[in-house]
Specification:
alpha/beta
Length: about 325
């Protein structure tokens, strides 16, 4: 088996390392903190997820140079806005025969690139061993072996197949998809809708409201994705509706939890200050706002969340504005 390493040691990357160790595959995990590395090495417990116990198949390090040089498969398990700062200084160590697997679900601020776009910007457009692994998957449930499905998306069929096989077992089933752009856009945009779903929970709205939100929200996701060149069918799949459903409904969802706290009247600054993990949807709301303007796509739900997060708009007023827009046709009309 190829040498597999994780850049980052968050809950999702750690859960996937457990998948590998259950298959008797060794992996190495990098964390920038020597103290965190030493603690996990000695206790064999994850520093944020107490339920996760590492087997001896998982090695920990804070030597990023050696990890990159010795790995055939590099799994990026860090937030999307951090990827450029981590990878760019090390690009001379990344040969074209390595496979890079992205786990992040976000769009880079200002450049408006998906993560595969960021990686091509750093490594060159001729680097084509880029795979995004996405889908409806909370780390907490993968750790406990609950049946879960993912998508291995890449322009490179061979790389997609390798990652599909590596990250599949009797509880984790991975499919292939050639539309990496659509998979990445679905993963990023659903986080913004999840914040909206949390706001519904925090205000106290019911199932009617959330069903409408998910359905109309997916309409917006598909509309922008198609305008950017993605395959509309991708958004009907695991990285589209599948990921949207789990992120909007689950107690494990950080983005939904952020929205719920906002709906309950808490400030975004205080909410983020109390979190130990990153809610990607907050910054993705900025990126998607910029993309919507760039591609001239009407996305009222995403815009409402942008205004709540960054313009101080009252969520209840935003809901009333959405509900009282000009009436239109469901299929032929605007979102």
């Amino acid at each position: 088996m190829k040498n597999i390493s994780f850049i980052g040691c968050g809950s999702w990357g750690a859960a996937l390392s457990k998948v590998l160790s259950d298959k008797d595959i060794q992996s190495t995990m990098w964390h920038r903190s020597k103290d965190v590395v030493a603690k996990m090495s000695s206790t064999r417990k994850h520093y944020l997820v107490p339920d996760l116990t590492f087997s001896d198949k998982v090695i920990f390090t804070n030597d990023l140079n050696s990890l990159i040089e010795e790995s055939s498969i590099l799994v990026l398990a860090i937030p999307s806005q951090s990827i450029r700062n981590v990878i760019e200084p090390k690009k001379h160590l990344i040969s074209k025969d390595k496979i890079i697997v992205n786990l992040a679900k976000g769009i880079e601020i200002d450049s408006l690139l998906t993560i595969s776009g960021v990686l091509n910007d750093i490594l060159g457009n001729d680097f084509n061993n880029i795979v995004t692994l996405s889908g409806p998957s909370h780390a907490e449930e993968v750790i406990f072996g609950h049946p879960t499905t993912l998508v291995s998306a890449s322009k490179n069929e061979e790389s997609a197949t390798i990652i599909q096989e590596v990250f599949s077992n009797n509880t984790l089933r991975t499919y292939k998809n050639h539309d990496i752009l659509g998979v990445e856009l679905g993963g990023a945009m659903k986080n913004v809708i999840a914040i909206a779903a949390g706001i519904c929970d925090g205000i106290g709205y019911g199932d009617n409201s959330k069903a409408a939100l998910l359905t109309r929200g997916m309409g917006e996701i598909s509309k922008l994705g198609s305008a950017m060149g993605a395959d509309a069918l991708t958004f009907q799949g695991l990285s589209g509706f599948g990921d949207l459903i789990v992120t909007c409904l689950s107690k494990h969802s950080r983005n939904r939890s952020v929205g719920q706290a906002i709906g309950e009247g808490k400030s975004l600054e205080n909410i983020l200050g109390e979190m130990s993990m990153v809610a990607e949807g907050v910054l993705s709301a900025k990126s998607i706002h910029q993309l919507r303007l760039k591609h001239n796509v009407d996305m009222p739900i995403h815009e409402a969340i942008y205004n709540v997060l960054f313009e101080g708009r009252d969520p209840k007023i935003s809901v009333q504005e959405l509900m009282t827009r000009t009436l239109t046709d469901e299929v032929k009309g605007s979102i």
